[in-house]
Design goal:
Elements lengths: L4 E5 L6 H10 L1 H9 L3 E5 L2 H10 L5 E4 L16 H6 L4 E4 L2 H7 L3 H13 L3 E6 L3 H5 L3 H12 L5 H4 L3 E4 L13 H19 L8 E4 L7 H5 L6 E4 L6 H12 L1
Parallel strand pairs: 1-2, 1-8, 2-3, 3-4, 4-5, 5-6, 6-7, 7-8
Helix pairs in contact: 1-3, 6-8, 8-10
The chain binds 1,3-dihydroxyacetonephosphate.
């Protein structure tokens, strides 16, 4: 039985004081989510990680939005895994479409980072998803399969089990044009079958999230689908009220 997961991706939003306010105000809702068997988390910017970690319920997952695959060295502007570990951060989002587009993050690079995270006993959240043009050409599955095969190449089944996948169609991100639950389930079911081909029966244990214009009023629809295990949420994860609405929708 896969545990449901709600992860808020704050992207480049919230200053440290705003992040602290959210952390302090989120305690009751984290308690509510945990008591209903749901994992909840947020992914603040690097400069907000420490304050969220220090001020939130310790059971709130606090994830970084990226990391470097090297432990240290001459990589100006980068953040390493040991730096995150010292703050108690053990989750990292990788391969988000915005990082692929604006920062040249490739599936090959994500593969290196995923291996480094797994070696450090951390939890990668690996994002995949197609552009509107790819969707309209009917090539979503081919595109996503390639991202999954390259991103998770060389992992053992035991390692693959530790990865969370997030399917986020680019055309649904921040547009208000969410994928229907049928489209989301169709692609996510396909991702699970691809994982089964790669890793065997553990595919049934791998959590796969949907992301793209998920809101308090539509999250429950996705959760009714067999292969969808939760959501990676941008805009609607920023305000406490809305985040609470997402948890309530997930609890059902
Ligand atoms: P929105 O929920 O704002 O569409 O963003 C989705 C996303 O990119 C989460 O990573």
């Amino acid at each position: 039985m896969r545990k449901k997961l709600l992860l808020g991706n704050w992207k480049m939003n919230k200053t440290p004081s705003e992040a602290k306010e959210f952390a302090l105000g989120s305690k009751d809702m984290v308690e509510y989510a945990i008591s209903h068997g749901i994992d909840v988390g947020v992914a603040p910017t690097f400069v907000c990680l420490q304050t969220v970690k220090e001020n939130a319920d310790p059971r709130l997952i606090v994830s970084a939005q990226n990391c470097n695959e090297h432990d240290h060295g001459a990589y100006t502007g980068e953040i390493s895994i040991p730096m995150l570990q010292e703050l108690g951060i053990d989750w990292v989002i990788l391969g988000h479409s915005e990082r692929r587009e604006y920062n040249g993050e490739t599936s090959e690079k994500c593969n290196e980072k995923i291996k480094a995270l797994l070696a450090a006993k951390m939890h990668p959240v690996y994002c995949c998803g197609e552009s509107e043009a790819t969707f309209e050409k009917g090539e979503t599955k081919k595109w996503v399969a390639e991202q999954i095969r390259v991103g998770l190449d060389g992992l053992t089944p035991e390692e693959a089990k530790e990865v969370v996948i997030a399917y986020e169609p680019i055309w649904a991100i921040g547009t208000g044009k969410s994928a229907t639950k049928e489209i989301a389930e169709d692609t996510i079911g396909f991702i699970r079958r691809t994982l089964r081909e790669m890793f065997g029966p553990v595919a049934a244990d791998i959590r796969i999230l949907y992301g793209g214009s998920v809101k308090p009023n539509n999250i429950a629809e996705y959760m009714s689908e067999e292969d969808i295990d939760g959501a990676l949420v941008g805009g609607a994860s920023l305000a406490l009220d809305s985040y609470k609405g997402l948890i309530e929708g997930l609890v059902g």
